[in-house]
Amino acid sequence: MSATTVPGPGTNVAVRRKARGLSQVALARRAGISVSLLSKVEVGDRALTQGIAAALAYAMGLTLDELLGTAPVAGADEQRLGALNHAVRRFDIPGPPPDRPEDLPLTLAQLNAHRYRTELRAVLGKLPDLLTDATNHAHATWSPDAWSRVADTYSLVYWLAARHRWMHLAELAVLKQRLAAERAHPIAAVVAARDEAGTFLNSGDFAGGLAIVDRAVVRAESMLQGRERVFGLGILHLRGLTLAGRLRDKAATEEHLGAAWRAAEAYGADGDAHGIHFGPDQTATHAIATYTDLDEHRRALDTADDLLRGGTALPPTRIGPLHMNLGRSHLALGDRDGALSELEAAWDVAPEMARVHPTSQELIRVLTSLHRRSNPRLTALTKRAGVSF
Asked: What is the mean pLDDT of the chain?
């Protein structure tokens, strides 16, 4: 079969290129990559990484999310997504406060538990009501605690939207998150900056995202104290690490990685706050992803061996992407079976995320292209993914 019949972000490259009347030579020259690499990406012999995708998107006048493609909305979820958009729009049009505001912290904790298990549909189903109730309660009380909860709920909206590459919703969510953070406790502004930098990451503007992170680090150093300060700086440096790695700025990468490790050591065992995990294991997963982005694949695999050998309590929302990144490294080193095993592990631990994640989609696309004959394990996986092989 032709690899281009298998959907995936890499398939979009040829479609977008041809729509703009560009030859492979012309696009490769504009993007600063080789024609050979572009050709292999288009036919499915090489996975499209987000760094390469960002360069190609910029060369074609697109954002990264436009090139990667948006995850489709299932028919049953269209109404839920509409309700979420409605709740976001009504940030400054409060309605009646909830009858039991004391239940809001537990409801938010329950939604974050769905998030940690990567149960995207459950989050989408329950998020509109929580966002409405939390916002109405904050308008009624105008307390920093209530507005912090609103900001944390918008962080969850951003996370859900970014997973599906619904970038209009993601960017609107971080705008409302910043507004809520201005009325909340100081840590809310740091989390909001981390999520705002995430929208730059998702759109392929890695340098812009780094500027957001650097500005937020200065603010966190002056605003926060104690354990909250360690957490805030830690999550900012992890975001900076990812952005610097995608930008292939090794000096900035090492700076953010070193700062993240120092914060992780000071923080102690991994834990979560404001819907975000942080600690040594979380830092290791980000380091592995960045090593993969920098083509340091052996280093990524060795770091993962150390992490997994000791055992980790990180949730599926982190373990799923970890396996996807390890699949990238195995594939880059020519180990197709290893890549397939990691992809299977990602689908086992976080199936809803694997279905919409561009790295998972690319691994499936490339593995089906490279396996010119049927592979029972891959066939089973493509059936789970809903594609033909």
From this structure: 93
Cα–Cα distance for residue pair 245/49, rounded to 1 Å? 12
Reading phi first (left if > 0) and then psi (alpha if -120 to 50, else beta), residue 373 is in: beta
Give the bridge partners for 277, in sequence order: 272
User: In sequence order, what DSSP letters do the residues of 59-87 get, joined into one string?
Assistant: HTT--HHHHH-PPPPPGGGHHHHHHHHHH
Q: Please, what's the b/e burial string for 136-174 (b: 16 or more CB within 10 A of its CB; e: otherwise)?
A: bbbbeeeeeebbbbbbbbbbbbbbbbbbbbbbebbbbbb
pLDDT of 5 over the 80 cut: no
Residue 375, classed as helix, strand or coil, is coil
Q: How far is CA 261 from CA 37, 192, 204, 216, 244, in A?
A: 34, 22, 25, 18, 16
The H helix count followed by the E strand count for the chain is: 21, 2
Which stretches does DSSP call E strand in the chain?
A: 271-273, 276-278
Is residue 171's pLDDT more than 60?
yes
Q: Catalogue the long-range contacts made by 269-276 (C-beta closer than 8 Å, 24 or more residues apart).
A: 270/312, 270/313, 270/314, 272/112, 272/116, 273/231, 274/152, 274/155, 274/187, 274/188, 274/191, 275/108, 275/112, 275/115, 275/152, 275/155, 275/156, 275/159, 276/155, 276/191, 276/194, 276/235
pTM over 0.85: yes
pLDDT in tens, 177-208: 999 999 999 999 999 999 999 999 999 999 99
Q: Tell me how far the alpha carbon of residue 232 is from its chain's centroid.
A: 18
Which residue in this structure is represented by tokens 């308008």?
A: 139
